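Saturday, quiet lab. Running sequence design on the structure tokens for the scaffold JK sent over.
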């Protein structure tokens, strides 16, 4: 019997779709290097199938500037090496004026995306983000703003006393273009309650993201591995 990864490679070569069982086999495999090779093989195969104009040896990216506003967080996620208490060494927090100055002086005019995330911190309010997004739009009009995980959006809505939908509408009007996939971590509630018990549930994460989609925002989802 052929190794499952070899069978999957043959399917990719023939242009066949992978099955759910194939996906589970990839998930269960510890051969990360081989899986990475298969992913690149699939990428090159797709590019070759669409003909000229797509170079298989070219890698494409966007000019992205990432801004973390603070690491002072009320969360207690056990896997987080980033969080600090306010009095701890290494703690930092951008005031609104400092964040706007950073955007205006440090971010290249060639930036095509500004990625902004923060923490569960009551100092970072809806008005804070609206002013910051407007400043981004003024400083770099052509840049796409991807900001605020579903966890942050849910928290901002709660401290604002309004719904997630209302919160998102206000953020969109200020310039929000899409949301990142952070905070998803893992949707198995038993594991989630062990590693990030204070974070919103996986179900709630999906509800917030669904609301964002209904309002026209695109998103992704990031899964944390190695914690099960």
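Result came back. Writing it out in full:
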């Amino acid at each position: 019997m052929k190794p499952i990864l070899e069978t999957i490679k043959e399917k990719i070569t023939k242009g066949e779709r992978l099955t759910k069982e194939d996906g589970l086999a990839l998930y269960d495999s510890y051969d990360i290097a081989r899986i990475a090779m298969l992913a690149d093989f699939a990428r090159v195969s797709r590019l070759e199938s669409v003909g000229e104009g797509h170079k298989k040896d070219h890698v494409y990216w966007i000019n992205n500037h990432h801004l973390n506003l603070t690491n002072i967080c009320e969360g207690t996620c056990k896997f987080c090496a980033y969080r600090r208490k306010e009095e701890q060494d290494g703690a930092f927090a951008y005031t609104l004026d400092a964040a706007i100055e950073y955007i205006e002086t440090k971010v290249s005019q060639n930036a095509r995306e500004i990625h902004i995330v923060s923490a569960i911190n009551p100092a970072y309010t809806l008005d804070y983000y609206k002013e910051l997004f407007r400043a981004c739009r003024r400083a770099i009009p052509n840049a796409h703003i991807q900001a605020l995980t579903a966890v942050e959006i849910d928290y901002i809505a709660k401290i604002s006393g309004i719904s997630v939908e209302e919160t998102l509408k206000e953020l969109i009007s200020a310039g929000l273009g899409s949301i990142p996939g952070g905070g998803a971590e893992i949707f198995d509630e038993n594991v989630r309650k062990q590693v990030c018990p204070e974070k919103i549930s996986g179900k709630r994460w999906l509800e917030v993201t669904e609301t964002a989609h209904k309002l026209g925002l695109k998103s992704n989802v990031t899964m944390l591995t190695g914690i099960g």
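Notes for JK: The chain has nine helices and five strands. The CA atoms of residues 75 and 199 lie 7 Å apart. Ask whether to fix the surface positions before the next round.
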